[in-house]
Amino acid sequence: QVQLVESGGGLEQAGGSLRLSCAASGLPFNNYVMSWFRQAPGKGREFVAAISWNGGSTMYANSVKGRSTISRDNAENAVYLQMNSLKPEDTAVYLCAAKRGLFARDYGDKNDYWGQGTQVTVSS
After folding, report:
1. Distance from C-alpha of 28 to C-alpha of 82, rounded to nearest angstrom
2. Residue among 67, 62, 96, 65 nearest 80 (CA)
3. Least confident of 22-26, 47-51, 100-104, 111-115
4. CA distance 109 to 100
5. Which of 8, 47, 52, 109 lies at a C-alpha separation of 20 to 30 Å from 39?
6. What is the C-alpha separation between 96 and 114, in angstroms, rounded?
7. What is the mean pLDDT of the chain?
8. Kindly report the CA angle at 74 between 69 and 77, in degrees rounded to 5?
9. Handedness of CA 94, 7, 13, 66 (dihedral sign)
């Protein structure tokens, strides 16, 4: 059974930082592109970042580019999202997703597995 479990969310002030983690189990982690998405109240799901199977390439949404870094540890079956210079508009549930493949892309609804999410709230 595949599980993606996010952690690291919380309440942070604008300008602060958070590091989100996603622990994966039940899948050959090296074979999967890992991504982060987010969903704010009343809005649709939004792509945030993706990382290729070996961490060699990454992709970011314009809304977080320059403020966020996605990374992975294949030995630990984990993917991370470091978010800096947080803004109130970053407030959302952040979800981890996995797509079998090689290249960092926004796979949207084509991701194979999803986590339950972790709440990030940024106060102004």
Report:
1. 24
2. 96
3. 100-104
4. 13
5. 52
6. 6
7. 97
8. 95
9. negative
Q: In this predicted structure, what is the pLDDT of residue 67?
A: 97
Instruction: Please report the DSSP string for the chain in residue order.
Output: --EEEEE--EEEETT--EEEEEEEESS-GGGEEEEEEEE-TTS-EEEEEEE-TTSS-EEE-TTTTTTEEEEEETTTTEEEEEE-S--GGG-EEEEEEEEESSS----GGG-SEE---EEEEEE-
The pair of three-digit structure tokens given for residue 41, joined into one six-digit string: 């109240």
Token pair recorded at residue 63: 């809304």
The stretch 82-102 carries a mean pLDDT of 97
Residue 77: predicted pLDDT: 98
pLDDT tens for 42-91 read 999 999 999 999 999 999 999 999 999 999 999 999 999 999 999 999 99
